[in-house]
Design brief:
YerB-like fold, alpha+beta, 366 residues
Length: 366
Amino acid sequence: MMKKTLVFLSLLVFLGGCGGVPEATPEPVDTPVYPEALLLDAHLDIVREKAYLREHPPLPVEPPVPVPLFDVTRPYGVMIDNHVGARPQSGLSMADVVYEALAEGPITRYLLIIPQDEEGVLGPVRSARPYFIDFALDYGSLYAHAGGSEDAFSALSRLKVASLDGLSSGEAAFYRISERRAPHNLYTTTAGLEKEALRKGYSLTQEEPVSDLTVYDRFKPLEGDLKVQAFEVIYKPASASDPVGYGVSYHYDESRRVYERRVNLSEQRDAATGELITAGNILIIEMTHQVLDDAGRRALGHIGGGEGYYLTGGEKVPIEWTKESRQTPMTFSLDSQPVVFNPGRIFVQVVSSLEQYKPLKEDNNE
């Protein structure tokens, strides 16, 4: 009996040593089986598609086409105040082209180039300056302003400008609002400007467009090597006496292919519509600035030519500008060819030095 027990225990030890966790049995994998008819149908579909494409090749993708930005209808050229007491302004969202340049001391002023078919409020309207007059004449504009410097009035007369002066036109075209203090409270409307232009006998059209600026019918990348997602243009650096200073910045929205515009890093909106101000194109052009008097009025070297930058689609390239005379429109060239702009508003930032341009974001590669 004892011998049988030992044999049994030895057998258990042997089986335990040889044992272990049993391996899992893999589940069988079903391999799909395609009927021959199904394979034949798929093959025939491919053959038919190739035959169709041979007979009906896809149309080539046409490149973007340049089209004139302006026609024979005269736009309005409107002087807009940019004093801190004038912000936010009305009318920027209606403009096709916007110029910004220093007017008095460190304070800039806007010139809005607005098509006649736009409808809305514009203001605050401020005084004329000779170089702004010339910029407006580059488009054959009906020029709206509120008075002007002596040099400006001389230019208005000598150049026979279609002047719409808010200080002499009356309330039919211009009016003041009570919410702001003078001189930052004079406003007008596109309808009022049209009435005033007709009252003064100005033609609303011209024989041919003065401006030869062109814009692509759809977006076209620059294909440059300088990527710039955000940048600023500084007109007054911050200081101990003015810790804010003054500058404008542009921040690229790739989904819409436009730059959102900010003033002192706060988004800029049209006071009349609430619309966020954007730009499809930004020109930064350098020209000499000469201070004329104690008020800080300036003469700009805008006749001749100079250098600048063109930014669109998150890219930046160097350009040149040329203006042969006061009666000759300014042109912009890239690699000796006229710049063709992308869809979207054009902002022209006039500076005394290209060093006023500063890239902002770390993902810029310059």
